[in-house]
Write a structure and sequence with these properties.
binds NADP nicotinamide-adenine-dinucleotide phosphate, alpha/beta, globular, Rossmann fold
């Protein structure tokens, strides 16, 4: 039986590469991004469900996991790549930028396993 993998941040980078690299023979892929209407590549792949998710919105994560379960029956693994790095000097206060990065990349307000149904 195929396993289902939920992947966040799939509009570019590691997330997109993960969706493309996982073999559709063994894995069903639930790819999430903030702007699915702009996606032209992942939407053409077999067994890929592309849906919208901003990981800062907790309720959206819960809604999304329900959509994935309705389609695939379960979520077997989470690849949470949604996030961003901080480089260089910015005028915005450091603490605010760091807090925002922590929320998006790590915190349990986003697509944290704690907001999803238990993974097997
Ligand atoms: N690449 C590396 O060598 C490396 C090394 C260490 C750590 N990392 C970290 O690993 C993560 C992924 O890296 P990457 O190279 O794949 O970066 P990337 O190409 O910039 O991809 C990041 C993805 O996260 C999405 N994203 C950002 N904020 C989001 C939000 N609030 N909700 C949902 N999606 C959001 C972006 O979507 P949008 O297109 O909508 O902005 C984009 O699809 C980043 O946190 C990065 O800092 C990367």
């Amino acid at each position: 039986m195929k396993k289902t993998v939920l992947i966040t941040g799939t509009s570019s980078g590691i997330g997109k590469a993960a969706v493309q690299a996982l073999c559709c023979k063994w894995v069903e892929r639930h790819a999430t991004m903030r702007t699915p209407s702009a996606e032209t590549e992942l939407t053409t792949l077999d067994d890929v469900l592309v849906t919208r998710l901003d990981v800062r919105i907790r309720r959206a994560s819960i809604r999304l996991s329900r959509a994935g379960i309705a389609r695939f029956g379960n979520i077997d693994a989470l690849i949470n790549t949604a996030g961003f790095a901080l480089f260089g000097i910015s005028k915005a206060p450091h603490e605010r930028r760091s807090r925002r990065q922590f929320d998006v990349n790590l915190s349990d307000s986003g697509c944290h396993p704690g907001n999803l149904p238990p993974l097997p």
